Structures are given as C-alpha cells and as structure tokens.
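Notes, Module 5: Reading structure tokens.

Key idea: the token line is not a picture. It is a compressed description, and you learn to read it the same way you learned to read a sequence, by spotting repeated patterns. We will look at two proteins. The first is printed below with its tokens.
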Amino acid sequence: MNLKISDRVIFSILNIIGNIRDNISIVKSETVLKWQSILIKKFWTFSSNNNKIGRPQVNQEIIKLILKVKNENLYWGVRRIQGELLKLYIKLDHKTIRNILKEFRRKGKLKKSLTWKKFLKMQANSIYAMDFLTVDTILNKRY
C-alpha cells in the first residue's frame, strides 16, 4: 500500500489526537462504494412520518352547505356558488366545488336541474317565432 507523505502526516496527527491505531481497518474499494451507495439511498429516501399527504379535506359542514345551496338554487353554477361562499369567508377553488357536486350528482343527492330537453320545450314557441318568422327587406335589413 502506497501512502503519500500527506496521508502519513494526517494518520500521525489522528493517532496523536485520538489513538486511532487500534481502530484503523483497511477495506476494499468495492466496500467503500457499497457504503457510499447505501448512504446516498438513505439520504434521498424520505420517510413519511406525516400521514397528511396532499390537500386537506373539505369540512363536512361546508360540503353540506354546498349541497344545500345547489339544491335550493338549481340554476346556479360553480362560480356563483364559489362567490356566495366567499361572502361567508369560505375560500374554495371552483374545481373543488365542481368535484363535490359531481360526487353528489353521482350519488343522486342533487335535485335534477334544467336539461336541454326541458329548456327547448319551455322555449319552443319563442324559438319557432324567432327562427321562422323573419322578414328581409329590399335594403337587406332583417325584421
């Protein structure tokens, strides 16, 4: 084993300070590389002591409030509900409200709102009058 002068000086100083003669052992380079890879794996592996991963859950009272507001106001959209919640100092993203409503709609806990079929039946007379009773003039104006 070839030791440089600087290595010999360091080992001499360490022996004087801490009497390392009995604690020195010579190992293979493969062993040092193995130890190094173990240390790197331990350093980059983060143990999760915290069970709260992700965003915090929405309070059940707020979910019930969203459900109540939607059932009482069938024509309100997600943004309108978000605005009403902001008046109560409840800040939720519109996507969170949409996901909550989607879950309740899937469970059947939301009242049915106006569908396209119902809308078209309600507006049939005015749509008919609007679409088919137009008059074009000679000057290309439409009444």
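Here is the second protein, with the sequence above and the tokens below, as before.
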Amino acid sequence: MTSGSQEDIVRRHYANDENLRVRQETHENYTVPHRSFAQWVMERVDWHDDAWVLDVGSGPGLYYSKLNPNHRNINYVGMDLVPSMLANHPAYDENGMLAVSNVQDLAFTDKSFDVVMANHMIYHVDDMEGALVEMKRVLKPNGMVVIGTNSMNNMPELQVLMRRAIVLLTRGGAAQVRAPALPSDRFALENGTRILSRHFFAVVRHDLPSSLVFPDVEPAMAYLESTRDLREASLPADVVWDDVMMIMRQQINQLIKHLGELIITKNQGVLLASENARFIGEAVEKLKSVTE
C-alpha cells in the first residue's frame, strides 16, 4: 500500500513514460471503432499557423505528433513536471520547445499563448483551481483552453469487476466496498464543465464514446497494471493489489471464454473554454464542419 500527496503519486507513477505508453498503445490497438483520441481532440480546435501553443503535461508528445504534420509554423511549447517524461518527445529533434514546469506555477509571462492544452492530466494536480488560474493567466484574451478527460462513467465494466474482486478479498462488509476511484473522477467531463465555468465565460463539451475490445486477457491485465500507482492507495487496508489482479485475471478469462471477447465501454471527451464572447458560435460552426 502506498500513500502520499497527489504530486508525490504522480511523480512516482510518471518517473518514466512506461505506464503512459502502455495505456496509449492499449487505446491505439484495441479501440472500436478505431479512432485516435488525440487526433480527434486536435480536430476540435481551429488552428492557425502563427499560434503559440502550450501543451501542459505533454509527456512524450502524443498531441504534438498529431498537430505537427499539418501545422509546421505553429509555435509549440511542451511542458511537464517530470523531466524524464520529456526524454522521448519528438520536439527535441524538431522546431518545438520543451520546458520543465509546474502547472500551479507556470514559468511563462502573462497572455503568452493562443491555446493551452492540458489533456488527461489536470486531475493529477493537487490544486486544480490554482492550476486553472495559472492557465488563464498565460492565455491570450481570445485564447482557448483544451482539456481532454474522461466521463465519470468511464470503463464501468472494469469498475464492476474490480469491486467484485475486492469484495471477495476484504473482511469488511460488501456494502462499504467501492472500486478504487479513477484519477479522472476529480476532473471529469461532468464536474470539469462546472469547474471551468468558474474561470471562463464559455465552456463547450465534446464527447467521443467508443469501446475497448480485448480478444484475450493479457492486454487487459497490462492496462490494469499500468494504473497501479494511481489506484492502489484506495484499496481497503486488508486487500493487496496483487491479489486483486489475480482475481481480475480469473474473471476476465472466464468472460472471454464464454463471450469470445471482453468489451469495455469508453466515455471520453474534451472541454474547450474561453473568455471570447464569440466562442460558442464559433464552436458550433466548427462542430458542423467536422461532422458534415
């Protein structure tokens, strides 16, 4: 069992990009219908080639890789709290700039960026409200914040299986057992919309439902193991992570044996926020253009 502040957990979990790589490859290889979430997010934004873009929590540059081929003249800054996460970022070899910085105290001047992205990371921050204040500070007056995240109803099938495993292992009553909370529940599509509305004039939500379809147990288990640092501390005191994973493996094997595959519902999306009064109308027109 591990413990510590949110920042300590994040630093430990992202000491290198291995866990993130496993999850990104899982989504890339097993999502049905096949669609790159990062590419889809980037298509929600109306880019212009002289824009300044800050990618908060950029990690090894997944979103940069989706942006760069079509927008060579964009001024990109990738940023991460953990230096090792930037080690394989392609901006090292191209025209982008990289920085080690904390989103709660950004090392950039006021009104520097046209777009500030914080995809699947803001929920890891201890002081989310303070982070949003900082993001707004470095954003130009008509700029846009882009935050990809999950629904609070993301991957419910895995949550049910994990809760069942914990019930079998704990000496406590089943009524008190909950599956370990997903980190993204702190800033999901639902509550994230409300949080952003406290800081920005307009917030637009886009959803991208899909599924993970696993034909065998190993990729599902690799995905679960990649979340260990983020979820283990939420287990009951008398429950050990490895025992939970042993029962998860048994359950998933049985489901695949009887059904032929394991289907996990994904509910993800992106929140766009701005102080621009024309933002809502522009967002609607953008949505029409990408759905026609």
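Summary for the second protein:
- The chain has one domain: 6-291.
- The chain has eleven helices and eight strands.
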